Structures are given as C-alpha cells and as structure tokens.
Amino acid sequence: MSWWMQTLLILVLALVGAAGSYLTNERPEPIELIQDAWMRTPEDVAGLGAVLWVDARNVDQYHVGHIEGAVNVSLQDWDIGLGELLTVWSPEQDIVVYCDGEGCALSRETAEKLRADLATDNIYWLQGGIQAWEEFTLR
Fold first, then answer.
1. Residue ranges of domains in the chain
2. How far is CA 103 from the centre of its chain?
3. What CATH superfamily is the domain 39-137?
4. How far is residue 69's CA from residue 125's CA, in Å, rounded to a whole number?
5. pLDDT under 50 in the chain at which residues?
6. Separation of alpha carbons 86 and 114, rounded Å
7. What confidence score (pLDDT) does residue 114 get?
8. Rounded to an integer, what distance in angstroms lies between the CA atom of residue 44 and that of residue 48?
9. Using an 8 Å Cβ cutoff, are 15 and 21 in contact?
10. Which of 23, 82, 88, 97 is the right S-S partner for 107, CB 3.0 to 4.6 Å?
C-alpha cells in the first residue's frame, strides 16, 4: 500500500473515532436559571417602591454602566462591596440584585450570600438582569 493510501486510511479512521466519541459523550446542558421565591421580574420590582440596587457583576462591568444608585457587590471583591453596601443600606429596605441578563447566575448567587450574611429575607434577584430592567424602563 502506498504512503498516501496509508495516510488517507489513518485520517478516515481518526475522523470516524472522533465522530463516534462526539455522538456518545454527554454535552452540558445550557444554563437554565431556576425560578424561586426570591426571583423578581422588572414589573415586580417596580411595585416594591424604593429599593437598593446591587450590581453583582465585576467592578469593570459596573464602571461601564449600572443602574443609578446601585452598589457593586461582586463575589470576587465581596468584603469591599459588602462594606460599601452596609454604609447605605437599612434593614427594612428591599435589596434587588442584578447581573448581565438571562444566562447570568451571579445575581442569584449574590442574593443568596447576602441573605445569609445580612440575616434578612428581603433580598431578591432580578430576572433578566440589567437588560430586562433597561427594556422595562424604556416602555
């Protein structure tokens, strides 16, 4: 058998093996945020009155743009953000945490951590993130 036939045979066998591996291996499911009792839609938040906004994104994203009055409390810089939050928050005030959008779980994770650290239940996460809020306020 000539060298080019051997090369072609090896290439075909490698492709068949790769295709078989691709078809039999499990691929991760897309991120789906589970709705829970702490999730709020933009319409829900509008009905809460004056809330304290918490931006769960990293500091660079926060500086690019955020909801007016929002405090940046990212999981990466937790102690700094939590300290800033404590200077402007009163325990009877509702907190709404947001991040980028539908696929972002940071808001939910941050809200859960805030509820545990602040020992209060009036902390929610915004479904759809900052994008959903901006679309809602443009209506």
1. 39-137
2. 6
3. Rhodanese-like domain (3.40.250.10)
4. 16
5. 26-31
6. 11
7. 98
8. 7
9. no
10. 97
